[in-house]
Write the structure tokens for this entry.
Amino acid sequence: MKINVRRMQTADVPSVVRIDRMSMTVPWPARVYEREVTTAHTRAWVAEAGAEVIGMLVLWIIVDEAHIATVAVHPQYRRRGVSEALVRTALQEAANEGAVTALLEVRAGNIAAQNLYRKIGFEAVGRRRGYYKDNGEDAILMTLEHLSIETLAHASA
Ligand SMILES: CC(C)(COP(=O)(O)OP(=O)(O)OC[C@H]1O[C@@H](n2cnc3c(N)ncnc32)[C@H](O)[C@@H]1OP(=O)(O)O)[C@@H](O)C(=O)NCCC(=O)NCCS
């Protein structure tokens, strides 16, 4: 399967929202994605197979820090490297723009996502107790230091 990763556009929002609803406990409304696409510090990405949007990622650049806000892949297309391609592309582009570190919060029970981030080089550095308001679940805080070296090294491997 050939995967193409490109920046999200407003026209992608309906597909992105469908994937989000199939993937997240608390999905974001369409208007949030519509706003993110045009927000200055946001870099929103989609993965497509042919003409179909099958995954998405939203990253915020805050000074020299890249914060992964959300990432999800259509259930039918999981375990084929789609999220890995999204995360690597987004981080590489963030590094090209001057981001030095990356961070994210992930649900303590979301082992698939934690494995994904570990594979890319993130390490768990903390726990935010009761961070998720819907069920009181803890967040694991993960960071990737030295973004440019790490990410570019892996991306060219
Ligand atoms: C987490 C998620 C984004 C992974 O997407 P994906 O495209 O299937 O992941 P990839 O195929 O790129 O897998 C990359 C690595 O992640 C890990 N991983 C992915 N899915 C996994 C699973 N179900 N169980 C264990 N590890 C998993 C593995 O380390 C995998 O590498 P490997 O295939 O070499 O073992 C996807 O399962 C998803 O959309 N889940 C719901 C939304 C979510 O939890 N988002 C993250 C929190 S914001």
Notes: Helices lie at 13-23, 30-38, 82-96, 111-120, 147-155.
